[in-house]
Amino acid sequence: LEAASDAEELSDHRASAVLLDEQERAADAAGLPANHASRALACALRAAAVRGQARFEEAAQLARQARGMATACGDAAALARAHLELGRSCVNTGEHAQAAESLEQARSLATLVGDADCGARATRMLGVARLQLGQLDEADALLAEALERWERLARPIRAGWCALGRSQVCKQRGDLAGVERWLQEARARFLLGGGQAGIASVDNGLGELYRLQGRLLEAEVSYRAALAWSRSTASSDEVICEANLGLLLLEAGGGREAAALLAAAERTFLWQRRRELAGIMGLALAACAAQDGTRPGWQTAWTPASEAIASTAFTSYEVARVAEIGAERAM
């Protein structure tokens, strides 16, 4: 279980799954009952491995199963981990209110049992959930708290993800100097810990920063670097990189590559049940249709995309910017 957890920290979700299969065989050989605490914890870790492969609905089901097992055996530590994984999965599927509820429970239980690792993870993810709901002050405070916890625990990769989250808060506030500062803080920590997935996410973040600064050529270089790394490792972040590159190319004038990337990202987001992100892709495809002068394509894409975003209470700079581009080109 410890080795599987270490593999998950390095985003090696396949290795984590293999180790969890070994743990399950060992538990069977030892004759452990179905609701044993170690089985509940393994189920929660399997949810993490599945979530890392972008199978978010399956991850949520496994997390709920782990929650039931931990409740049955009365193990608070395993229950904390189950709530953590359920919250993380709900963040990915756009169920931000449910995510916040599960993550609050994970934080409380982790404090009760003295699980510093779980408590720090839940704090960071709660910050991410608040960020996606547009609650920027609360999000920043939670991410700062999680960053401090991970620094005390000497876990640079996890601290790097907190720094990356703080860069996103700065982006939503329009503080581009803060974005750059926290991206560099994140990169330093990922380099220290050997977190390649994190470094690719920093490249993606730099692409966003350069795009906001109007440095479109540098943004494209950063996005393509992040996309190449994600594709080479079959990372679940590949779709994010596709989406961002497509949005950049749209802003630069559109074209076939932009439409192809945006359409591919929309299909993946729909498969992942990430309604708000699929909605942004829909808005962008409507803008592509407007660019091409295709009124039916604009009208077909715009309304359902807008409704999908509104249904999740998701707020983001990208929603406003893509809507603005689409409106300009429609006019």
Which key phrases capture this entry?
mainly alpha, 331 residues, 17 helices, single chain, 0% strand
Low-confidence stretches: none
Main sheet overview: none
Task: Tell me the structural class.
Answer: mainly alpha
Order of helices and strands: HHHHHHHHHHHHHHHHH
Write down the overall mean pLDDT: 88
Helix fraction, binned, reads over 70%
The outline comes out as: globular
Query: What's the β-strand tally?
Result: 0
CA-based gyration radius: 20 Å
From the N-terminal CA to the C-terminal CA, the straight-line distance is: 57 Å
Portion in strands: under 5%
Oligomer: single chain
Q: How many helix segments? A: 17
Protein model, in words:
Helix 5 (76-93) packs antiparallel against helix 6 and helix 7 (116-132) runs antiparallel to helix 8. The chain has helices spanning 2-9, 13-29, 37-52, 56-73, 76-93, 96-113, 116-132, 136-152, 156-173, 176-193, 196-212, 216-232, 238-251, 256-271, 275-291, 295-312, 317-330. It has 331 residues and is mainly alpha-helical. The chain is built from 17 helices and no strands. The mean pLDDT is 88.
Write a brief structural summary:
The protein is mainly α and 331 residues long. The protein has 17 helices and no strands.
Topology of this protein?
Elements: H1 2-9, H2 13-29, H3 37-52, H4 56-73, H5 76-93, H6 96-113, H7 116-132, H8 136-152, H9 156-173, H10 176-193, H11 196-212, H12 216-232, H13 238-251, H14 256-271, H15 275-291, H16 295-312, H17 317-330
Helix pairs in contact: 1-2, 2-3, 3-4, 3-5, 4-5, 5-6, 5-7, 6-7, 7-8, 7-9, 8-9, 9-10, 9-11, 10-11, 11-12, 12-13, 13-14, 14-15, 15-16, 15-17
